[in-house]
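Work Package 4 report. The design task specified in the project plan requires that, given a folded chain encoded as structure tokens, an amino acid be chosen for each position. We show below one input record used in the internal validation round.
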């Protein structure tokens, strides 16, 4: 790539690589802000800089901190609140609470693979002089909890290096970094960090900085206009989210200020389920006239006890089929025990089966380490008879992409078991990590069209006792708002489709984690979803540990419009390493559509044997 840099002032430059690196120069020495990768080194030579004295990072994300081997004598400074996420990253990578049952996403897994030494930690108001400049630290959380902004006063002007708070006028680098719980876990907090983000942007506005330099993005010379535009867009995007959010059913207090907002879908009343259904925990059970039971999901051993109780009371004879709606832990944790207790056929959608039969291969919200045996994998529209009922299975990418839906017809009703995808208040897309894709024939658009076509008399959610349905007008309201969202969320990101900013997993490693033995060759696949309406080229390169003394060549693929592609790597594991049981983080460097993204994703190798 060609070296590109711009000069902001006599002593201040910005190198435009996969991120913007600030270069404050004083003769042949420099202070760098957010150096990542090595492309800025060419700019340094061009500027005659031979001595990197000091490095400052705005936040801990690997895609703006990794890739440059920092020499020992360089002074590294980071936000005090994130210091551990630079210098003790092993704590994160080795702690199961950051791997399984994920309901909280702070800190985020976009973290350095290997720790770096930190000398200075910065809190609000810290000031210091460097060469011709004076620097001030502002705590500006939002993109991450501990992000800071460095104000650089030099040559009579004030520049704000604002991290990833804002990408460009009215734009953000991504939205999933703003997933944050307010009164509950991060899981329920779609855009939950927007207030923090707004306050941080206001704080920057008040400094009267003349220029904003984002880590990802475009240098902004009219900070007020850039910030105003972003705030307006975020307000609209959040309104379009709340308007049809299923969360209004679970946590009405969170949305009190939106009561009576124009265009928001009213919340429906429920209706009683047919008498041959039972509901306990997240499990629904259909009881046939012959006494046999069809069970859906098993999240806890209590469900097993309750089924046994029904057997003891002769309300049911035996469980003969079992359906899994989706991979979340509160639906699958107790399946191994259930399968040992009730020998019956386990059926699920092919996309769900991929996760629950090999959960170690995925890193997703609410993921359970429980491995589920699946006896029959269904494709979209597969139908079968179970006693007096006709069952039809669908891929149903609602609450998560890895989700199925089941139509159960019989005894005069058409019941649709939607997993967790709907409540009477609307759609369940409050966790961006679940991959709720926008667009035609994707995500909830696909689910709503399916329900329009099937016209169920009852819709069921695993967490909700009453059944419910939607009127034609409500269905249309949800579809219209989804279409508006596609448009207003696309404006928010520097991509040609909103899904790049919203779908955290558009680039992912498979398997995410795997056990590898010394001397073997491991297989690693980098999967990429092209959310654009044209083909795109992707380049990936796994970055192996220094100690392995080995480099994998980058590889490339072209992916058709709106589809998945992948790049396969064979990774030779060295024969002699003294690290049995050690978890090795292998970051993957990505370039997409000629845009370098740095160490954008990672895979984990767990060394065994030796
Ligand atoms: Zn970031
Ligand atoms: Zn769920």
């Amino acid at each position: 790539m060609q070296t590109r840099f711009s000069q902001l002032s006599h002593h201040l430059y910005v190198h435009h690589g996969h991120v913007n690196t600030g270069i404050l120069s004083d003769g042949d020495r420099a202070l760098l802000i957010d150096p990542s990768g090595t492309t800025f080194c060419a700019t340094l030579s061009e500027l005659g800089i031979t001595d990197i004295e000091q490095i400052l990072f705005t936040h801990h994300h690997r895609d703006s901190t990794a890739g440059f081997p920092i020499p020992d004598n360089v002074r590294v400074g980071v936000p005090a609140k994130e210091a551990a996420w630079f210098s003790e990253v092993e704590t994160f990578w080795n702690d199961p609470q950051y791997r399984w049952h994920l309901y909280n996403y702070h800190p985020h897994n976009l973290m350095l693979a290997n720790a770096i030494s930190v000398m200075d930690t910065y809190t609000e108001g810290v000031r210091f002089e460097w060469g011709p400049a004076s620097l001030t630290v502002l705590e500006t959380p939002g993109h991450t909890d501990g992000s800071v902004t460095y104000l650089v006063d030099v040559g009579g002007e004030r520049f704000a290096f604002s991290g990833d708070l804002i990408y460009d006028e009215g734009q953000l680098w991504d939205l999933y970094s703003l997933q944050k719980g307010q009164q509950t876990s991060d899981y329920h907090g779609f855009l939950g960090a927007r207030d923090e983000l707004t306050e941080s942007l206001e704080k920057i506005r008040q400094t009267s900085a003349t220029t904003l330099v984002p880590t990802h993005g475009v240098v902004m010379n009219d900070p007020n206009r850039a910030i105003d535009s972003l705030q307006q867009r975020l307000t609209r995007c959040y309104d379009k989210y709340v308007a049809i959010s299923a969360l209004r059913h679970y946590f009405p207090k969170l949305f009190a200020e939106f009561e009576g907002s124009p265009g928001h879908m009213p919340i429906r009343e429920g209706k009683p389920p047919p008498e041959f259904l039972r509901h306990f925990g997240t499990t629904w059970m259909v009881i046939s006239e012959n006494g046999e039971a069809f069970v859906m999901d098993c999240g806890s051993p209590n469900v097993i006890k309750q089924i046994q109780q029904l057997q003891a009371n002769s309300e049911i004879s035996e469980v003969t089929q079992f359906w899994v709606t989706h991979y979340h832990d509160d639906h699958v944790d107790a399946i191994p025990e259930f399968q040992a207790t009730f020998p019956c056929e386990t059926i699920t959608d092919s996309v769900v089966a991929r996760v629950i039969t090999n959960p170690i291969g995925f890193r997703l919200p609410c993921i359970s380490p429980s491995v589920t045996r699946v006896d029959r994998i269904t494709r979209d529209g597969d139908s079968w008879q179970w006693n007096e009922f006709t069952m039809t299975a669908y891929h149903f990418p609602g609450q998560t992409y890895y989700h199925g839906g089941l139509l159960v017809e019989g005894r005069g009703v058409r019941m649709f078991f939607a997993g967790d995808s709907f409540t009477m208040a609307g759609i369940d897309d409050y966790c961006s990590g679940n991959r709720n894709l926008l667009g035609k024939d994707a995500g909830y658009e696909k689910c709503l069209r399916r329900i329009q076509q099937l016209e169920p008399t009852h819709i069921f959610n695993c967490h909700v006792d009453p059944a419910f349905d939607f009127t034609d007008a409500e269905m249309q309201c949800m579809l219209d708002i989804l279409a508006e969202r596609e448009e207003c969320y696309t404006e928010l990101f520097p991509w040609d489709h909103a899904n790049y900013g919203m779908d955290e997993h558009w680039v992912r490693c498979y398997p995410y984690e795997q056990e590898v033995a010394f001397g073997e060759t491991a297989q690693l696949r980098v999967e990429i979803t092209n959310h654009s309406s044209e083909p795109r080229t992707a380049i990936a390169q796994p970055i192996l540990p220094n100690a392995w003394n080995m480099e994998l060549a980058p590889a490339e693929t072209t992916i058709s419009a709106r589809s998945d592609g992948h790049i396969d790597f064979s990774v030779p594991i060295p024969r002699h390493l003294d690290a049995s049981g050690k978890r090795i983080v292998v970051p993957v460097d990505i370039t997409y559509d000629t845009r370098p993204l740095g160490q954008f994703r990672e895979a984990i190798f767990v060394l065994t044997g030796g």
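The chain has three domains: 5-242, 277-496, 506-608. Validation will be extended to a larger panel in the next phase.
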